[in-house]
User: Fold this.
Amino acid sequence: MTMTIYEALGGQAGIRRIVEAFYPKVVKDPLIGPLFPEDIDPVIDKQELFLTQFFGGEPLYTEQYGHPRMRARHMHISIGKEHAEAWLQCMYQALQEVGVPEEVVDPVMERLAGSAYFFVNS
Ligand code: HEM
Assistant:
């Protein structure tokens, strides 16, 4: 039996728990926290839709917001390698906090690292 990462994370409900653990860490992070809008709730909702799609669930983000073009959507933010690392560190901690099994954490982090470093634009 082969499972998508999406299924291994517990589907959309599992992804919701992860983003709810993730953004409080992001907001508190001294480097990347200040980049985010004061009202983080819309970002949490969008990330839930995006990661659902990204990890093999229904294309919920595209249905609501069109083609992700996620690198382009980050171009108005100045992102260096250190920002990508801080983002990934918050995500790693969120995955630990939510209790995602280690064998799932590895492929999740690998895929997100690919995107995070791809978004580096300065
Ligand atoms: C590399 C470090 C990253 C930084 C510093 C960063 C920063 C941000 C910021 C500041 C926003 C809010 C923009 C706004 O509302 O004005 C945002 C939105 C978002 N980010 Fe990132 N991000 C990073 C990496 C990632 C990665 C790796 C992903 C997913 C693979 C991701 C997915 C998203 C999504 C889905 C949104 C919402 C997009 C929308 O408005 O529709 N980000 N990001």
Remarks:
- The longest helix spans residues 11-28.
- The chain has six helices and no strands.
